[in-house]
Amino acid sequence: MPSGSEPELAGVGSPVSVRQERRRGDPNGDSLKQQQGARLARLSLTYLFAALYLGVLGVFYLQDWITLNVFQLAAGLVGMSYVIFYLLFATGLNLRSSTRNLRGPMTVTAIGIMLFVVYLAPATQMAFIPYLLLTFAFVMHRMSSSVMLRLSVATLLAYALIIYLHHRQWADGDLLSQEIMQFVALALTLPGFVMLANRVQRLHSDLYKANRKIHDIEQDAQRDELLGCYNRRYIIAALEQQKRLADNNGEPLCLAVIDLDHFKQINDEAGHLGGDDVLRAFSGIALCNIRQEDVFGRYGGEEFLLILPGTSLKAASHIAERLRRQVEQYDWPVTLGKPVTVSIGLTQHVRGESVLDLFSRTDAAMYVAKHGGRNRVVIEDSAIAASS
Predict the structure, then answer these.
(1) Helices (H), strands (E): how many in the chain?
(2) What would the pLDDT profile of 356-383 be if each residue is shown by its tens digit?
């Protein structure tokens, strides 16, 4: 199609006016929302353990081991801390912190509340030690061993201060002996948690690196090594998958077959290395002019497929025409005898048809574009009839 003209219908001479119906999504914004949602989910899980701790304190109250005031104060502190952290995540203020998950502040808050409760009610020491170890276990895979060590030392010092204050307040020899024994047990246990945290950190790092390597290998297996776009095997599998989804949910699906015009002549003029440069440049143009949900890949040689899921034929024709113009207007090397252009065949999936039939109709439309003068978008007419 000559530059500036509209896409034409195969077998029909009337032009089709087009408009873009969907905009690109914001992948960074979507990713950030997902991360914040995951942090809120972890916050809820963290405070599920806090609720269990309060349940233990409730049992202590029923046994008259602590007063109602202590239980209410502990519940109030837990509830208030949850609201504060929830608001930090919900408003995005946590993003201003170097540790966006606020794992350190939440850990310090949890330990601080439990130590305060121990100070008010010594009987809660029975719950303090197991829940302190549970807190450390919950964060050890994310917290470095040095931070765990400093936090352990700070906790032991605070616990020792509480023991001293209890002795000053009540001068109870039995209570002092019991608290010293628990302090010694805790002091001998926490270093083991620090060493375990260091081991867990290394294992977590090794697992992350292994997963990244597997992911990279999978990505490389899906990509054309020369062009960076998807390869033939992946693009065919993606087309089959999108066809099944379109059949199941009834959403539109469009397919474009794109062929570089006079590519043999380009290879003859610029050599095979120059031809590879043209293919790479075209692939880059296409990837920059499609949407996040679209799938673009090399079918073979100088022929490419563009899958447009959830896209009407009018919107797809706009995308195809935009790509055609971008290729035509690209600043190709002057050594080429003529500007590089593309011929595009476009059609819409008819519900229930096979992938082979869909591809055949689209490929036929591309050949109509070739025989009609090249550098044009041709829409297969039966797709219009099926979608109207």
Answers:
(1) 11, 7
(2) 999 999 999 999 999 989 999 999 866 4
Euclidean distance between CA atoms 319 and 2, whole angstroms: 16
How far, in whole angstroms, is CA 116 from its chain's centroid?
Answer: 40
The first and second tokens of residue 115, run together, are 């130590």
Residues facing 298 on adjacent strands: 304
Give the whole-angstrom CA distance, residue 333 versus residue 14.
35
Write out the two tokens for 254: 């469009």
Model pTM above 0.70 = no
Q: Which residues pair with 254 in a beta bridge?
A: 308, 348
Q: Could you tell me if 342 and 258 are in contact, meaning their C-beta atoms sit under 8 angstroms apart?
A: yes
8 A C-beta contact, residue 343 and residue 369? yes
48 near 134, Cβ under 8 Å? no
Q: Where is pLDDT greater, at 242 or 202?
A: 242
Q: At 283, is the pLDDT very low, low, confident or very high (cuts 50, 70, 90)?
A: very high
pLDDT of residue 4: 41
| Confidence at residue 79, expressed as pLDDT on a 0 to 100 scale | 96
Would you call 136 helix, strand, or coil by DSSP?
helix
Q: Where are the alpha helices (DSSP H) in the chain?
A: 27-62, 68-91, 103-120, 125-139, 145-170, 173-222, 232-249, 263-288, 313-329, 355-371, 381-387
**DSSP secondary-structure letter at 373?**
T
The residue type found at 52 is L
Asked if 336 and 266 count as a contact pair (C-beta separation under 8 A), the reply is yes
